[in-house]
Design a protein that fits this description.
The structure holds two protein chains of two kinds. By secondary structure, chain A is of the alpha/beta class. In chain A, 37% of the residues lie in helices and 28% in strands. In chain A, α3 runs parallel beside α5 (153-165) and α5 (153-165) runs parallel beside α6. The chains are: A alpha/beta, B mainly alpha.
Chain lengths: 257, 219
């Protein structure tokens, strides 16, 4: 069994003729909290989307909890993964989206219980009890019967986190989860993530522009630019003494605001 | 002929019209969803079959479709009664228009919804039925309302294949009594009332389906 929760092995990703990255190698250890920072449009989110099977890859191998994600072995031969294989792998992961993507036609509680009931096969009572527990964790137990349209952005995102957790993932993919929020609502969301990171029960991969937050909760920070990890290391090193000129320029652009 | 008698005769015709609507509307809805979903299928042959259906029934005259089903098919050994012919022709014709409403409605749901459904590991079928379709339905209601009214009015075509519907009786009465103002005035009112009832039903359905979803609309 691999020590890594996530492995990118020589991966190539293109959009048409545009090569996003080539021969990309990147690993995340089990229960490690990793932040990916870098300029917009550099493909940071694509890394998460490839893991969540929202984007496919053009070459190489991606492994999740030691299992190849986009390929499956059949009679000794490697084949492209079919829907069944993908569904097996997706069970390891949960994703929180920049724009929440809550289901607007369901109440908050049903947003959280729908997949546990119909995908994991939990009983309604069990799913509801778990759902209420999660809502208490994110401080929204009183909103269980509200529709998402009645919530603030910060509340929506906390539901988004609870919804992902309800599927009991071991890996959490957080895709710029505070970028669409008003500044005063960012903290209530980060507070929830801070608690999760402290539990040390999840492998977490964050794409974020919240530099102070990345610094606070990450085991490792990676500066991603032009299709590669330019520099990576413990947060103190990346933020206090970056080695690379491009990392310095990027961080300065943030700190000088 | 006194107005009350005219009213009675026309009421009987309106009842026939309502019967045809009540049978053709579910058929049209079924055809709309079947072909609308197939046009988004991964299988080329299914997509193609649905497209041929839609383009044929949209692209040719509803009246000629009705004549074909009632007058021409018997030559190929398929005889059906007038009511069934009317229901099938109207259901298939309106269903072809509805197909595009279904397809457009499904495509208008935000892509993030599908992505969230994938991330929660729903199967492709669950994504469609539990996440995408319930949201798409709300937006489909106003154009479906148009089509339902279109269907009510198109039923007058069946008067041309011997069915004694509202239009058929109005014409017979007018030929007989020459009281054209009263008769055709009443017919307008009958069609209008039927259309209004349908409109109200569909608006109520839209409101019910859109519960919780923030959308602009008539209240």
């Amino acid at each position: 069994m691999s020590d890594f929760a996530v492995e990118f092995d020589n991966v190539t990703k293109k959009f048409g003729d545009n090569v996003l990255f080539e021969h990309f190698n990147f690993n995340i250890r089990k229960n490690e909290v990793v932040s990916i920072i870098g300029p917009s449009g550099s493909g940071k989110s694509t890394l998460l989307r490839i893991l969540m099977t929202l984007e496919s890859i053009d070459a190489g191998m991606v492994r999740v909890q030691g299992e190849s994600l986009w390929h499956m072995q059949k009679n000794g031969a490697w084949l492209p993964a079919d829907e069944r294989h993908l569904r097996k792998c997706r069970g390891h992961m949960g994703m929180v989206f920049q724009h929440f993507n809550l289901f607007p036609h369901m109440t908050v509680l049903r947003n959280i219980t729908e997949a546990p009931i119909h995908v994991l096969g939990q009983s309604k009572e069990e799913a509801r009890a778990n759902g209420m527990e999660l809502l208490r964790t994110v401080g929204l137990a009183d909103k269980a019967d509200a529709y998402p349209s009645r919530l603030s952005g910060g509340q929506k995102q906390r539901v988004g986190i609870a919804r992902a957790l309800a599927m009991k993932p071991s890996i959490l993919l957080l895709d710029e989860i505070t970028s669409a929020l008003d500044p005063e609502l960012v903290d209530e969301v980060l507070e929830v993530i801070r608690k999760l990171a402290a539990e040390d029960a999840y492998t977490m991969m964050l794409v974020t522009h919240e530099m102070y937050f990345a610094r606070e909760i990450s085991d490792r920070v990676c500066f991603f630019d032009a299709g590669q990890i330019v520099e990576e290391g413990p947060p103190e090193q990346i933020f206090n003494a970056p080695n690379h000129e491009r990392t310095r320029a990027f961080l300065n652009s943030f700190l000088n605001i | 002929m006194p107005l009350s008698e005219i009213f009675d005769v026309l009421s009987g015709g309106a009842l026939v019209t309502v019967q045809i609507v009540v049978m053709a509307l579910p058929l049209a809805t079924f055809m709309a969803f079947l072909s609308g979903l197939l046009r988004l299928s991964d299988h080329r042959s299914l997509r193609w079959t649905a497209t041929v259906y839609v383009e044929f029934f949209r692209g040719t005259s509803a009246l000629i479709q009705l004549y074909w089903i009632y007058f021409v098919l018997p030559f190929f050994g398929i005889s059906i009664d007038a009511i069934t012919a009317g229901v099938v022709a109207l259901g298939f014709n309106i269903g072809a228009y509805g197909s595009e409403v279904v397809r457009g409605g499904l495509l208008s749901v935000d892509k993030g919804q599908t992505e969230a459904a994938i991330a929660l590991n729903f199967s492709p079928r669950q994504r469609l039925w539990r996440i995408i379709l319930p949201q798409a339905l709300v937006g489909m209601m106003p154009p479906f309302g148009n089509l339902a009214i279109e269907l009510v009015k198109a039923t007058s075509l069946v008067s041309l294949i011997t069915i004694a519907d509202l239009t058929y009786r109005a014409k017979s009465l007018a030929d007989m009594t020459l009281q054209v103002e009263e008769i055709f005035g009443l017919v307008l009112v009958f069609y209008f009332v039927m259309a209004q009832v349908l409109t109200l039903c569909i608006r109520a359905l839209e409101k019910y389906l859109g519960k919780g979803m923030d959308r602009g609309g008539l209240t």
